Amino acid sequence: ASRRQTRGGGPCRCRVSAPELRRAEADRDVEACFPLMQQLRPHLADGTELLARVRRQEAEGYRLLVAWRGDTAVGAAGYRFQENLIRGRFVYVDDLVVLDSERRSGIGAVLLDEVARVAKSAGYGWLTLDTALNNVLGQRFYFRWGLLSTALHFGKVL
Which residues, 6 or more positions from 98, have their beta carbon under 8 angstroms from its beta carbon? Predict the structure, then answer.
């Protein structure tokens, strides 16, 4: 594995062959993301449930960008364009996941870089995401990528 600097300046180990980035739009492509997405969302039962949820979210602008090695989804970023009074127009990253076997290979940074590029070219000037308070490794990655903690997210089951 070669070494390079991530967007945030930290080193990462990158595989020689970069995965292909493309959106999962066909049903079979979304369903093929189930093993990957289940790492992040273990409550998902199967590919059929993932497909149904993605299709409902697409009605609200959700897009699923996937890093593929052949027919295997090795990383994914689910995102949507939004607007609110505090940030104006921004891109919200709902899901960011990389296969355990592919972690520290630069795929997460490549996915975020592409989401940021797409958002910026569409006139959006802010990227945001949420992560669990106990996701220390994820937080380290986000800081290295250049994201800063700007708020504390609150929630309540209804």
Answer: 67, 74, 75, 105, 107, 108, 111
